[in-house]
Design brief:
FAD/NAD(P)-binding domain, 466 residues, disordered N terminus, eight-stranded mixed sheet, alpha/beta, FAD/NAD-bd_sf, five-stranded parallel sheet, 27 strands
Length: 466
């Protein structure tokens, strides 16, 4: 049963056992299609000068569907296939929900409240529905989910190639070959940290790391820190560093502000009530692209650039590079902060309109005071000890040998269905709904794909042979 949501959410709509999307632990890695010279620390046997991959000496596993990735998307897909009695296996490069442990900092917490952590036939049932889970808690939640239906996950399997064969798809992996009628790529958006080219221009003495590798302030060398990026990760880490006594500079790029709570309820509660999370990609004026995420923090307080400045963070415009021994920033800070604040204003107005239309009994709340932010003086490179790149992630689909990518390198699909028969994707941003990449959103897309796979299996039973 879904826990009671009396924690600040006005009677959210009844939640079906499925829903939209999320962020995942990846499983596949890019490869050149050739077997490595070493495997498992052992030299490969060879014939003459041509090494023989251990993969070639293993038997081929035949199954109905292979799901690549055992994060929330891959597990939701497995649950939906299991419910329909469809044979499948889930291949995961590391461990179940690994990215929630390995790519989150120590103080990380979900942006959405615990009550909104829902997957097909599984939802949060703890004692703190209004709280915000840590990365480790999310990993345990997903591991328990996999155990609840004995998900057929094989961990430690690196998928190197995926290509068409007669009757289906073949996957070459570190654990041998797999042959399947259908494949669901559920590796999500965290495959490859994005680091701008300007990183190469910084002096070698400056310690650089991406948020995927950041854990806590003690990890960084003593001195000032430059955080590049003002999305949720960048602002949360900048605040943590400032509270740890570090001098912090923040290079502010495009982002959206949202109030953590408004008129007595959490922002995610209002987004659900107003149908914002269920908005579909076909209602957008154009392709969603890489739209910036709304900035929130787990808890009850708002998080935005003015608050960071009040806590001692020095804000700048976007990072342009360095010259004459100093960092260079754009002069766009004021406009960027104003644009972000405008998003929060639109959100509050939408809530106010909804309350007026429905005569909801919620407390009134005055609009917050507008705070202008001035850019600080660009610091000398010699004064910067470390740079944290909060610049997001890119996908890595180089291992997929099928003509399914667009000119931008992204997989072209309609609700997760590609032009290549039997190849599907799951867990992408705006895959179909705004929430398709969220923990609370991937389930609906998984149900949709499971239905398509079931129909395909019924129409033409697979004829596969190892």
């Amino acid at each position: 049963m879904r826990p009671a949501i009396g924690v600040g959410c006005p009677s959210p709509r009844t939640h079906l056992p499925t829903l939209p999307r999320a962020t995942q632990g990846g499983s596949a890695s890019a490869g050149d299609g050739q077997p490595p010279p070493m495997a498992g620390g052992r030299a490969l046997p060879s014939v003459g000068r041509t090494p023989i991959s251990l993969e070639d000496t293993m038997t081929e596993t035949v199954t109905g569907t292979v799901v690549v990735g055992a994060g929330q998307a891959g597990l939701a897909m497995s649950r939906c296939l299991t419910d329909r009695g469809l044979p499948h296996v889930v291949l995961e490069r590391a461990g179940i929900a690994d990215s929630w442990r390995s790519r989150r900092w120590d103080s990380f917490r979900l942006l959405s409240p615990n009550w909104q952590t829902r997957l097909p036939r599984w939802r949060y049932a703890g004692v703190d529905p209004g709280g915000f889970m840590t990365g480790a808690e999310v990993a345990r939640y997903l591991q328990d989910y996999a155990g609840s239906f004995d998900a057929p996950v094989r961990t430690g399997v690196d998928v190197r190639r995926l290509y068409r064969v007669a009757g289906g798809w073949r996957l070459s992996t570190s654990a041998g070959r797999f042959l399947a009628r259908t494949v669901v790529v559920a590796t999500g958006d965290l495959a490859r940290p994005r680091i701008p080219a300007v990183a190469a221009d910084l002096p070698p003495g400056i310690h650089q790391l991406h948020t995927a590798d950041y854990r806590n302030p003690d990890q960084l060398p003593p001195g000032a820190v430059l955080v590049v990026g003002a999305g949720p990760s960048g602002q949360q880490i900048a605040l943590e560093l400032a509270r740890a006594g570090r001098p912090v500079h923040l290079a502010v790029g495009r982002h959206k502000s949202l109030p953590r709570r408004y008129r007595g309820h959490d922002a995610y509660c209002w987004m659900e009530r107003l149908g914002m999370l269920d908005r579909t990609v076909d209602t957008l004026p154009g392709p969603p692209g890489r739209t910036p995420n709304a900035v929130l923090a787990g808890g009850t307080r708002d998080l935005d650039v003015p608050r960071l400045v009040s806590e001692g963070v020095v804000a700048h415009g976007r990072l342009l590079g360095c010259a004459d021994g100093r960092l260079r920033f754009g002069d766009d800070l004021a406009g960027t902060v104003a644009d972000a604040a405008a998003n929060a204003t639109r959100f509050r107005r939408a809530v106010d309109d909804f309350v007026a239309r429905t005569s909801m009994d919620v407390p009134a709340e005055a609009a917050p005071e507008v705070v202008e932010v001035e850019a600080g003086e660009a610091p000398a490179l010699a004064g910067i000890a470390a740079v944290v790149w909060a610049t997001g992630f890119g996908r890595d689909h180089g291992w997929i040998e099928a003509p399914v990518s667009g000119v931008d390198g992204e997989i072209v699909h309609t609700r997760g269905v590609t032009a290549a028969a039997g190849l599907y994707v799951l867990g992408l941003r705006w895959q179909y709904r705004r929430s398709s990449s969220f923990l609370d959103g991937v389930g609906a897309d998984a149900e949709h794909l499971a239905e398509m796979i079931a129909e395909r299996a019924a129409e033409r039973p697979a004829v596969l042979a190892a």
